[in-house]
Amino acid sequence: MEVQNKAGQYVPCRTLLDSASQSHFISVRCVQRLRLSRTQTHASIQGISSVNTETYHSVSIHLRSRHTDWHTTHNCAILSHITGTTPSTKLDTCTWKIPKDIKLADEQFDQPGGIDLLIGADLFYEMLQSGRRTRPGNYPILQETVLGWTHTGRTPATTTQHEPQHTFLLRKDNSLDTI
User: Fold this and answer.
1) What domains lie within the chain, and their CATH numbers?
2) How far apart are CA 5 and CA 31, in angstroms?
């Protein structure tokens, strides 16, 4: 995915698609890199295991696909970090047999790296397309999206018990009762 910076140029941003998140999020580092203007906006956010955090700023971003003519503008709450390094270690994809005829949304999906954006449910389902490819065994599903093909689900076991496993579920709570 690419996001428009202050100068009007599009910059690649590493993005997680989260079908359960009620909001969109962008990292402080990405906002700084894009030189975007912040708006003061307060929100309480509750994540998995009832972990709470606060955000005090948001930005309006213009997103576009690198592979299709899809684009949109949305607000994102700014967080210091969206998640840890994802994936936590390099994925060995040599046995995955990724078809050569598809355009991946992120050609570097198997490389550990930071996450710039988290796109929530209202855009998640708008981005899905009909293509889906599966392979028997402990392999991820390939899902076609307006951004290109994404990987989701299981991966062959290459991690140890000491490496973090990531699960994403974020809920924005704007109620006045949670102070």
Assistant:
1) 2-171 (2.40.70.10)
2) 9
